[in-house]
């Protein structure tokens, strides 16, 4: 480790910033976030620094740096951008034993500033020792996605109860267990969800031992995993997955998503697969309830959104009827994910004023849909589970007045690396699906919004055909 990570208290002594440009302003913002009292020395300053000085939030000496400026300072930043000035600042600070950082000059600095994640009072600094600052920033971006926005609130909440918990639970090990449970339990969930009043009530119950039973009770989160690309999962989905003791997942949820679960979490596949016993919905319901009633945090992980053709509603009702706490975490539904991935808008000003999500599959064969209304008006139809019934679907729509030439686009395995987009007309939809061998999960988009994709394909086909013709000599 080239640099020792430490957190400075900047409130005791002034911090000196030499320089008045954008780089100095950036450093000032950071210092002020940490409660510093900055003094700026620079003959000229950008408007932001001048305004801070006018408001009395910093002191600005509009002149050149002098060695005496360092006296009494707790920290020095060289941000003039002028090699000679920055070197003089660094030399003076070092000779007086004051920590100094010179922007973009680790060779002149006695400390470097990390990429920062600020969830005050939780602060994370990430450093690559000056070797790869962009890598540090990318790590920060990844960590940002994992940390709830209200993390700071949670830390402050816990801090406010530290004394009370210590007074009530004398034993150190017990106390540690209490806090471990606290940070992954319902009180923390409430704080993170912004319900501090509810959290305080539950916390008081916990500390006084009244709600010990409830703290141990399990729960089920019915979580939407999105259409396939793991980056399309929500922060909350990721968090629930990482907290889960048990994960029940479907066929549409790929291993790269299930892998976000804790290593020691139990993973149970409940989807359909050749050669495997397929669990019925009743069996899945029973399994979820058993696990939750045994005190486990269960995640029921579903493709797309749980409430869109996902049977999330039935599962929620079943669990709630048994007094089990249920939370539903929405996900990016296939229509939204596939449309975005294929560059097809679902609505289009003046052309598609509504979008309807419908299923091509029903319990007993053909779905009972209002074909006349689906065939009318300026709208987009996003058909789920429609590949095997495409011929019937297209036939019914045409019978009810939708133009046979209406453009269609079929997105198979949308948002995944193997995504394939097939375009065509409504009257040849079934034929196109067969010719193109569409067998994976696919979303059918019917409407004018697919015209651009269709025309682009026709142009590409014509160009390919022209290229294949023998060249004239
Ligand atoms: C049982 S439904 C589940 C829908 C899911 N709850 C949602 O909100 O996306 C399954 C159907 O969703 C569509 N689907 C799901 N993921 C898809 C993907 N990655 N690409 C294309 N279609 C997908 C297909 O029509 C598939 O047959």
Structure description:
The structure is a single chain. With 473 residues, the protein is α/β, with parallel strands linked by helices. The chain folds into 4 domains: 15-113, Rossmann fold (3-Layer(aba) Sandwich), CATH 3.40.50; 151-215, Orthogonal Bundle (Helicase, Ruva Protein, domain 3); 219-329, 3-Layer(aba) Sandwich (Cobalt-precorrin-4 Transmethylase, domain 1); 335-459, Methyltransferase, Cobalt-precorrin-4 Transmethylase, Domain 2. Helix content is 39%, strand content 17%. The chain has 18 helices and 17 strands. α15 links the parallel β13 (354-359) and β14 (379-384). α7 packs antiparallel against α8 (196-207). The longest helix is centred in the middle third of the chain and has 18 residues, at 151-168. Mean pLDDT is 91; it is low at 211-215. Bound molecules: S-adenosylmethionine (SAM). The site of S-adenosylmethionine (SAM) has 23 residues, from α14 and β17.
């Amino acid at each position: 480790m080239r640099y020792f990570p430490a957190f400075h208290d900047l409130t005791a002594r002034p911090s000196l910033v030499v320089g008045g440009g954008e780089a100095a302003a950036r450093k000032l913002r950071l210092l002020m976030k940490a409660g510093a009292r900055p003094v700026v020395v620079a003959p000229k300053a950008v408007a932001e620094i001048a305004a801070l000085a006018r408001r009395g939030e910093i002191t600005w000496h509009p002149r050149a740096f002098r060695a005496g400026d360092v006296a009494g300072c707790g920290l020095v930043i060289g941000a003039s951008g002028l090699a000679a000035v920055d070197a003089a600042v660094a030399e003076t600070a070092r000779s007086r034993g004051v920590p100094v950082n010179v922007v973009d000059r680790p060779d002149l600095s006695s400390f470097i500033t990390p990429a920062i994640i600020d969830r005050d009072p939780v602060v994370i600094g990430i450093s690559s020792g000056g070797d790869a600052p962009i890598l540090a920033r990318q790590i920060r971006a990844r960590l940002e996605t994992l940390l709830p926005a209200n993390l700071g609130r949670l830390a402050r909440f816990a801090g406010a109860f530290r004394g009370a918990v210590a007074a009530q639970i004398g034993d150190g090990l017990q106390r540690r267990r209490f806090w471990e449970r606290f940070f992954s339990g319902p009180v923390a969930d409430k704080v993170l969800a912004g319900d501090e009043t509810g959290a305080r009530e539950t916390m008081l119950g916990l500390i006084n031992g009244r709600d010990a039973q409830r703290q141990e009770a399990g729960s089920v989160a019915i979580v939407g995993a999105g259409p396939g690309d793991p980056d399309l999962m929500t922060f909350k989905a990721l968090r629930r997955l990482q907290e889960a003791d048990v994960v029940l997942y479907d066929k549409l949820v790929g291993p790269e998503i299930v892998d976000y679960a804790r290593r020691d979490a139990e993973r149970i596949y409940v989807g359909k697969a050749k050669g495997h016993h397929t669990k019925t919905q009743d069996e899945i319901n029973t399994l979820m309830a058993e696990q939750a009633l045994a005190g486990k945090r269960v995640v029921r992980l579903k493709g797309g959104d749980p409430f869109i053709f996902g049977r999330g509603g039935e599962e929620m009702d079943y669990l709630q009827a048994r007094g089990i706490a249920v939370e539903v975490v929405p996900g990016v539904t296939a229509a939204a994910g596939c449309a975005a991935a294929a560059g097809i808008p679902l609505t289009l000003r003046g052309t598609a004023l509504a979008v309807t999500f419908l299923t091509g599959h029903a319990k007993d064969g053909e779905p009972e849909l209002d074909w006349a209304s689906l065939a009318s008006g300026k709208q987009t139809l996003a058909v789920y589970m429609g590949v095997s019934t495409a011929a019937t679907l297209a036939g019914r729509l045409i019978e009810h007045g939708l133009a046979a030439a209406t453009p269609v686009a079929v997105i198979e395995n949308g948002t995944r690396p193997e995504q394939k987009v097939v375009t065509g007309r409504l009257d040849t939809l079934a034929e196109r699906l067969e010719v193109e061998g569409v067998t994976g999960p696919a979303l059918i988009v019917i409407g004018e919004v697919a015209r651009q994709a269709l025309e682009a394909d026709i142009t590409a086909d014509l160009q390919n055909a022209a290229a294949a013709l023998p060249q004239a000599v």
